[in-house]
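Hi Q.,

Before the meeting this afternoon, I wanted you to have the UFG prediction in hand. No need to reply - just skim if you have a minute. The sequence and ligand are here:
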Amino acid sequence: MSLLITGGTGYIGSHAVVELLNAGDDVVIVDNLSNSSTKSLDRVEHITGKRPIFIKADICDKAAMESVFREHDISAVIHFAGLKAVGESTQIPLSYYHNNVTGTIVLLEVMKQFSVKNLVFSSSATVYGENNLSPLIETMPTSATNPYGQTKLMIEHILFDLAKSDPQWSIISLRYFNPIGAHHSGLIGENPNGIPNNLLPFVSQVAVGRLQQLSVFGDDYDTIDGTGVRDYIHVVDLALAHLKAVTALSKVDGCIAINVGTGNGTSVLQIVNKFKEISGVDVPYQISPRRPGDIATVFAKADLANEFLGWQAERNLDDMIRDTWRWQSQNPNGFE
Ligand code: NAD
Ligand code: UFG
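Predicted structure with the ligand bound:
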């Protein structure tokens, strides 16, 4: 039996694949390479000594997905594939709704057709919207403020409805907070196309000399130093949460949403200072206006993951920054 990993050549997916292969699981990856390259597979093989089966296909392509399930004995799916840039989603919303929502519906239809009803889904803390106060708890009301967030919320609704309609489904929706860091080998890591939107890739590209300076989006929030506070989580800890979730599927009747965060908040300037301390490199920055749509503080209540999955984050901020820097300094141009 194999696990199907959609989006398995991407940032989080490739780290999950490493941990799954190390744990002895058989893995089949489906990815259309829209935001990744097969070079990550070479690196995964270098780290684990094993090469996962890779199929280049789009999850929206029903015939291709059917042949994946026909040719491989799939026991469960971890579904990472999706478009994820908030800003871009406001410019090309139809692409986001089609890729993320239609793609997930096609995947679910094919899973149902082949009686594979075990799923772990990549959701996001973005489903808490802007009206809840941190720490964010799974029972809080959800909402979305942009098309990307809407796709995650819609998919969660679809998963809850599907699980209600047929008790054979076991689904865990993992709500990730802010994944950063890289595998400690420095061989795989985050490799964004173009100018990064997220804080850590931006900071590390400034540190490595690819970008000139960081814009800190606002220093007048009601936080420890006025800059935005987020719950950063090491990507390897996040990957390990997926292994625990796959195991926990056997005790899920229906669909359950679980936060994956550390429960700690860190400000933008705390990140910048920690990055300077660990890398020994300066990170020039300027204070800029707030970024539209940002909120002051986002961090998780992470108790359910501990209670239900037996998981908690083990890597601290120093580990996250050290591993980010190792990846970026060893691979200044990503996988190129
Ligand atoms: P990523 O872009 O590195 O990985 C996503 C992968 O999915 C890519 O390899 C891409 O080529 C592939 N893909 C996209 N659309 C596809 C399709 N239609 N068919 C087949 N493959 C497709 O992103 P990531 O950071 O690894 O994120 C993985 C998942 O986690 C995404 O669903 C994302 O929305 C979610 N998530 C990410 C973050 C974050 O900050 N990175 C936070 C919360 C949730
Ligand atoms: N920031 C800067 N400068 C930058 C980039 C970010 O100051 O160049 C600040 C932001 O204002 C924010 C913090 O750094 O205060 C983190 O910003 P990110 O863009 O790295 O992360 P977000 O929390 O805004 O968004 C992330 C994911 C989204 C997801 C959201 C909620 O990118 O996909 O978390 O989980 F929806």
